[in-house]
Each structure stands twice: as structure tokens, then as C-alpha cells.
Amino acid sequence: MLRIEEQVAGAVRAGKRTQTDLKRLRLQRFKQEQTLHAAESALTVALAQLRAALGCKGPEPRFEVVYHLHSTARNQRLRVKCRLGAADPEIDSVTGVWRGANWYEREVFDMFGIKFRNHPNLTRILMPVDWEGHPLRKDYPVHGYKYSYPTDK
Questions:
Q1: Boundary of a domain, candidates 35, 54, 73
Q2: Are 37 and 90 contained in the same domain?
Q3: Is 18 found in the same domain as 77?
């Protein structure tokens, strides 16, 4: 895996930006986290390339899917954020890369309604199967919907 500096530099080069733009990128490390500082001209192209690679789309970002990556071998951390629109939030599943993301993606689907394309089993994990809505969305009613649980006899 390439270092973050090399990935962003590659994205800037792919966008036909000048070497001056590339020099305006600076990576800062603080307490095991990385922050990329960049001039607007360099950042726009780099983020567009990274956004396209993650499959992010949507004109008005309402949701944000956040991945926290940690390399135990190198003791490095990286946070990747992808903003999604409100109409039909959808993003590619990462279960093909990390099997452990399976339940986390199901939980996000169940609570927020964000769909993960190519997920092996995108079904509810916390709420009943016939539950309507997604409880952690801000447009969900404060007192919830009326729901009657089957009685055991």
C-alpha cells in the first residue's frame, strides 16, 4: 500500500496539475493521526480522485460514512470520510476488502438507511425485520412510530 503522500501526489499528477500545486501539499502527523494540508488548487483534484475511487456521489451531502484505518505493523492511523446525498444514500461495500465491516455496514443500513452496494447480506441487524424507517435519522419522529410487538401466549 502506498503512503498517503504518494497517493495524493499521484492524484494531483493524474489531474494534470503543476509541480507547484504538488509542493503545496503538506502532511501533518499528530498523535497517530494524519492531516493533509493543501492549497485549494491541489486539494480539489486530489479529493476528486479519492472521492471517485471510493464511489462517493450526491450533490448535497447529508450523511458522512467514516472509515478509521489503523496499521498495527506501522502504528499509523488514517481516517477516510465520504459524504453522501440525502435522496438515496448509497456507497460501495468494503466487505470484499475487510470482512469485519459486514456487521458495521448492516448496522449503518439499519439505523441510518445508507445502502451498501454489493454487500453479501444487507438486512436489518438491530431492529425487527418489518420495522419501518431508520431510527437514528434526524427526520425520524421523536417518539417513534407506533409499533405493536407480538404477544407471547
A1: 54
A2: no
A3: no
Type of residue at 16: K
What nine digits make up the cell of 71? 496499521
Domain limits for position 126: 56-135
pLDDT by position in tens, the chain (length 153): 445 556 555 655 555 555 555 556 666 677 777 766 656 555 556 666 556 655 665 456 788 888 888 889 988 888 888 888 888 899 989 888 889 999 999 999 999 999 999 999 999 999 999 888 888 887 776 665 566 666 655
CA angle 76, 79, 81 (to 5 degrees): 165
CA distances from 103 to 6, 44, 76, 99, 122 (A): 32, 33, 24, 9, 9
For residue 4, is it within any domain? Answer: yes
pTM: 0.57
CATH number for the domain harbouring residue 67:
3.30.460.80
Q: Assess whether 70 and 41 both reside in one domain.
A: no
For the packed helices 40-54 and 4-14, what is the interaxial angle rounded to 10 degrees? 100
Domain count, the chain: 2
The one-letter code for the residue type at 64 is: E
Tell me, what amino acid is at 105?
E
